[in-house]
Design goal:
This protein is of the alpha/beta class. It has two domains: 307 residues, 3-Layer(aba) Sandwich (Rossmann fold); 116 residues, no CATH class. It is built from 16 helices and twelve strands. The strands form two sheets. The chain has a ten-stranded mixed β-sheet with strand order 1-2-3-11-12-8-7-4-5-6. Strand 4, helix 2 and strand 5 form a beta-alpha-beta unit. Helix 7 crosses helix 8. The longest helix has 24 residues. The chain is globular and about 65 Å long. Keywords: DNA-binding, Methyltransferase, Restriction system, S-adenosyl-L-methionine, Transferase. It is an enzyme of class 2 (transferase).
Length: 430
């Protein structure tokens, strides 16, 4: 069915096969099931729907193939790879993302999880002492958490850390992480971690929220565990930049190359993951408050630059993009530099993928086009140009309508709303 609007939007329950898709088609995918299996575990901003990697895996790979996601995020591609009996490997600089992805792709016997949960609650209820030694050193912590939340979070964290089985411990750490924002005074649906002075929300009860998340995640894990019992595949989660990796990081077998790469890189200037996970970083002991800004520099699309870095106009070599960078530079020098660095990072990423993927292997990139200072940046088209320089050719490109957003991104009228994502399919030719 095609909806009769200015833009032809094709409604579908499932994406059609690659041979049925025309260049620049736009799809409205009616399948709203995006939380089956372990996809339900932990909220994560701007993650793409599982229907996209599922489509790419079915269309461009076979059983036993190796699928790479260089911007692993919360592991959507890796989960779908395992479910379709493919091996998975992914990179990410965000330690929370890596832990989420590791938990989501590690099948655990649900009976063991239930037993461990029962013991966890028994231990917590039997010990009424606050656990000062596991409370993070968050400046002005009582701004972010009530005394009751701090007390209960500390007890959950303390007894989770006593769990001996590392996979089970990680499962409970992610369950713990998933309740931190809800049990704080901070706004839940905002990208920026802040406490509203006008609409201060009551924090959720730690025990009730943990119990709710545990049983949601247990159901998803049970589904994954039972589905993967006959699949002889695995997923690897690696701490590394998407713009700096080689084949030796992926496999120890020099003759083995990646069969398919699928990813959803960050939007330019859109998501500051360290701002999203500020409280989780600290409660999980990944970063102290003073270290978070330094960590922000590791991300492609970061805005952490100094005046001496952006006082001169930088160019990429793409004529149209450089003209836009020049126009933005006249208004906002820093913004121009941020966009330049984003595309330089993406250029490096595409070259890295080109180096590790087999000939005729496909690189599927899912990305949205931003508006910066009222100027539309056709990111998808620029990435295709960089890919052509790196030995790829365009196989197809289409878009799909974005229907759900976990976090609200306050852009002050400068960033625009990204209403659809583009799916770029690149073919490695040389």
């Amino acid at each position: 069915m095609i909806t009769d609007t200015k833009e032809k939007i094709i409604e579908c329950a499932k994406l059609p096969s690659k041979n049925e898709i025309k260049l620049y088609d736009t799809f409205d995918i009616n399948d709203k099931n995006v939380t089956e299996f372990t996809h339900i575990i932990h909220k994560y901003p701007s993650k793409f729907i599982p229907q996209i990697p599922r489509w790419a895996i079915e269309e461009y790979s076979k059983v036993g193939d190796l699928v790479l996601d260089p911007f692993l995020g919360s592991g959507t591609t890796a989960i779908e790879s395992l479910l379709y009996n493919r091996h998975a490997v992914g990179f990410d600089v965000n330690p929370v993302a890596r832990l989420i992805a590791k938990v989501k792709t590690t099948p655990i016997d649900p009976l063991k999880l239930e037993e461990c949960y029962t013991n966890l609650i028994i231990n917590i209820n039997a010990d009424t002492n606050i656990k000062e030694n596991v409370i993070p050193d968050i400046p002005n912590i009582t701004k972010w958490f009530t005394e009751e939340s701090i007390y209960n979070l500390s007890r959950f964290k303390y007894y989770i850390l006593q769990i001996e089985d590392q996979d089970i411990k990680d499962f409970f750490l992610i369950t713990f992480s998933a309740i931190i924002r809800k049990c704080s005074n901070a706004e839940y649906r905002s990208q920026k971690t802040y406490v509203s002075s006008r609409f201060r929300k009551p924090p959720a009860d730690v025990f009730k929220m943990f119990d709710r998340r545990f049983h949601q995640y247990l159901k998803g894990m049970s589904h994954l565990y039972n589905s993967l019992r006959v699949n002889n595949v695995s997923a690897r989660v690696i701490a590394s930049s998407a713009a700096d990796f080689s084949l030796s990081d992926i496999t120890e077998e020099p003759k083995v190359k990646v069969d398919l790469a699928i990813t959803s890189p960050p939007y330019v200037t859109a998501v500051e993951y360290p701002a999203v996970f500020k409280l989780e970083y600290q409660w999980l002991d990944f970063f102290a408050d003073s270290e978070i800004n330094e960590h922000r520099k590791e991300y492609i699309g970061s805005d952490r630059y100094y005046v001496n870095q952006y006082k001169e106009l930088q160019k990429t070599g793409l004529e149209q993009l450089d003209k836009q960078l020049e126009d933005i530079f006249k208004v906002n020098q820093k913004k121009s530099y941020i966009i330049y660095k984003y595309f330089e990072g993406m250029r490096k990423n595409i070259q890295c993928v080109s180096n590790v993927i087999k000939n005729n292997g496909k690189y599927v990139i899912v990305v949205g086009n931003n508006t910066v200072l009222n100027l539309e940046i056709p990111i998808s088209e620029y990435l295709i140009m960089f890919a052509q320089q790196a030995g790829f050719e365009l196989e197809t490109i289409y878009s799909y309508i974005i229907k759900d957003r976990h976090l609200v991104f306050p852009r002050n009228g400068k960033g625009g709303i990204i209403n659809k994502d583009w799916v770029i399919v690149l073919n490695k030719v040389n």
